[in-house]
Prior knowledge:
Elements: H1 2-23, H2 31-51, H3 54-61, H4 68-76, H5 81-91, H6 101-113, H7 117-128, H8 139-148, H9 152-163, H10 171-183, H11 187-199, H12 206-218, H13 222-231, H14 241-253, H15 257-270, H16 279-287, H17 291-301, E1 310-313, H18 321-324, E2 336-339, H19 345-351, H20 357-366, H21 372-380, H22 385-395, H23 406-418, H24 422-434, H25 441-453, H26 457-465, H27 467-471, H28 476-492, H29 496-508, H30 515-527, H31 531-543, H32 550-562, H33 566-578, H34 585-597, H35 601-612, H36 631-660
Antiparallel strand pairs: 1-2
Amino acid sequence: MYIKQFFLKISLFNNLMQQTRCFSHNPFSGKISLYLHRARLIDSIRVILHSNSPRSLISLLNGPYVDYFVVANALRSAPSPDSALSLYEILKTIPHFRHTPATIRALAKILAKSQRNAELKSLVDDIDAGKFWNVRVTFVDLMKWHAAAGDLESVLHAWNRYRVSGKQVSIEAYNIVMRLYVLMGKDSEAMQIFHKIISEGALPNSRTYTVVIEHLANSGKLDSAIKVFTMLPLLRIRRTLRQYSVLVEGFTSINRFDVVKSLLNEMQIDGILPVRAMQLSLQRMREAGFIQETDEFLTGMLPDERIKNVGFCVGSSDDEDEENVDQSCDDAGVDGVRLKPWLDPRALANALNNWDPNEVLALEEANFIWTTRLVCKILRNFNSPKAAWEFFCWVAYQPGGFNHDIYTVQRMMTLLARHGHVELVGKLLLKIRREDIRLPVSTIRLIIDFYGISKNADAALKVFHDAESLCGPMSKLYLMLLYSSLLRTLTKCGRNADALDVLEQMFLGGICPDLPTFSGLMYHFALEGDFKTVQKLFMMVRQSGLEPDAYMLKVLIHGYCKGERSALALRVFEDMRSLNLMPDAATKNLLVKSLWKEGRRREAASVEERCNETNNGLPSALHGHLWTMSSADLTRVYDIYSNTFATVEGQNLQMELGSKL
């Protein structure tokens, strides 16, 4: 053990010495100039790898400023696995270079995507053996790499080790296994993983539903895919660009342009910026006569001619690496390589987090071409809202004609709201109203949610009351979701009276809360000790025509038990049994413990006995989540998913039987 610690310290010391060697005589005036120099080095390596000129690479890698950041990004940008591996082999001859987690992970991803399973396993074995002392690999890392390599056996091996390790299994691990089963055509196994997510109480995220939607769409079940997609707002799941792209491509391929038109409208409601991957689908739609619907999207997808390539002439000298980066040469042709400049929005944002005047000057001199997509990516990666605001204001006055649009403005507003900068958000909202720009409903909801975190209830109420003027007319579904966000924020801020007033306004406006909203309210007031309000809310559920689900009743039992009202919790348990529902094991144990604590031993024994009488035992977990997801909605998604493939399997079975007869 002591020897291992000794070598670990040596490895860390070597890495420190490498960084010291690179920057002890730092010629860079700041972080931006360092970023720009690294970017030029990465571009030089990329171009050399594309040109198959390894002799140039050796002299370049021996330079004093080639560090782990440059190497990791050069590996990720390699044109092929062979070129990445050749770079890795050359690095072994560079005496001062030491691998870091970033470089090893980059290499592992390349080996995985190129399905070089033997080499990937060898690299993992080297990591486990401690060859790279400062590199640690998680179960999820292993599962991602083996899944990218298509190695199902290794994925399941890591998955099973993860499940018995005692650690809480992340939803990402479920997603990896489920997606690999889908890619391998194992429909029933994929559905079993989705069932496992639900039954084990894991919370599906947007990537989970992306796998479901892709599975359905790629199997030709587009109507089922769109049903799942339309349910995501009810589950408080943000719909992603990937989901939109899959559905747009699918419905375009069968000429269902009415559905594509509806999807494009929903994209604008969700505030999602389209990508060039959708260009072919939209061009086909345009050719079918939908010119007005596609014009704006297609215009935004045109390549920006202001962004020049980096070039490398194969015949140039190995000693002129700085001159190999050429942004003005237009005749690379057959004898040269032309690539778009390398750019990392996260690294650029990190370099600007202090917003130092010298850094700003260096940024101005770099003459970046500012686009909506680039500005959005940089804003997303700022850690400091102050620096993000400075950048947001600065970029609007740069040469080149960049103008903020709804995508950059909404990105800035949500960042400010997350950190409680109410005044700046108010300024942007005022600007939007003056310029008659429509804001996505999802952005208003995010702002209200973030005001709950920063405890700005008054600001949340103001944004809510201005929502219609900011977003335009809203459907009842989006109004309900907006009300739900406001109620959650008000309870977080301790504004109970205001929350009840808003709930009353909601009913007067003909908007009925859904089960997750009621569950969140009841649990909040139970913890506050206001049991009369809890019972009143439960009566509202019944009067609204909603059927309480198992998760809502579980929430009530937990709320009452924590408030030391086991008699009320027992009454909910009775309601549960009358609906032919059962609590999960944790809820039953909490109820029994609370009854014993309050001296109700006979009732506690009765609960134990009745739960033990069930044939299948108690569920390990009840699916659902306060404020966001009901078990009924999640069950509905599962039914759509499983019934679709159950029908397919049934048809296949009939065909098999028919062929045998």
